[in-house]
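User: Can you help me understand a structure? I only have the sequence.
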Amino acid sequence: MLRITLLAGLLAVTSLSHAENDIPMIPVVSAQKAKANLTPPPPKKDSGKKSAPAKAHAPGVVNLDKSHITMQSGVNEIVQVAVSHLNRIVTPYDNPKVTTSSQATTEVRDNVVYIGTTNESPLTLFITEMGSEEQALSLTLIPKKIPPREIFLNLPKTQGNEIRVTKKAAKWEKAQPYLITIESLLKGLALGELPSGYSFLKVASGVLPVCRQTGIEFDFKAGQTVTGHNLVVHIGVAKNTSPEPIEFVEDTCGAWDVAAVAAYPRNALEPGEMTEIYVAKKKHYRKEIKVDRPSLLSGGK
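Assistant: Let's start by predicting it. Here is the structure, written out as tokens:
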């Protein structure tokens, strides 16, 4: 409207000037027609202030101030800690173990790690469950001149449940002598029972056993897997494919990580008969490196 009013006034002044000089007067255009020929003004911007939504952290941006961290396997988390003060790291483990090459003071109490340093160089460390290297929490700590910090390390719900389950399994395994544990485990599985803390998979998982005996065909690929803390049991089927009766020999399934082998409901198989085979393996067993001693009779080489 401001531009339209100025234009109407300008036309009126122009018409008076021409009338005085006996020049034909330019017809006055009405405001409505002038408005129709004008370029419409740009839309007004909304002056109302609206709160901008919280921006998500872009990929690769590290939030150094976070106190609750959900740890992911194989992912290193970077957080700030206080220099020249003790910092408190609450872990999801019952008995955490700290491994680091950094110059820092660490102390473990229950599931809490206390760590302090007087150097402002970054600290790198791994936190694992005592006695198990299956899972590690990787941290990089950036010392700063800030107050002491308390940091809570959490695991995804599925992993947290798995850890609680394996802890129950470890407690059951350690509650009795090793041989009795193996015997109770295999007997319970034959009767369809699972020990406390053990998980059951209807499909075969992991490195399957290898059994070799003439006249018997073994199948673990279509079998089952039962997992505990230190033990895993693979359950397969053995079938006598020969025309003669055969007795199953447990040693044919032996390997460096096999703890025990059993068959149920029968060890002796008639032609065409089948039975279940149970192979218990050690989960955290490390194969010993064998070093051969050269014989002196062959020159000691």
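Now, to help you interpret it: The helical segments are 2-20, 31-37, 157-174, 178-190. The radius of gyration is 39 Å. Let me know which part you'd like to focus on.
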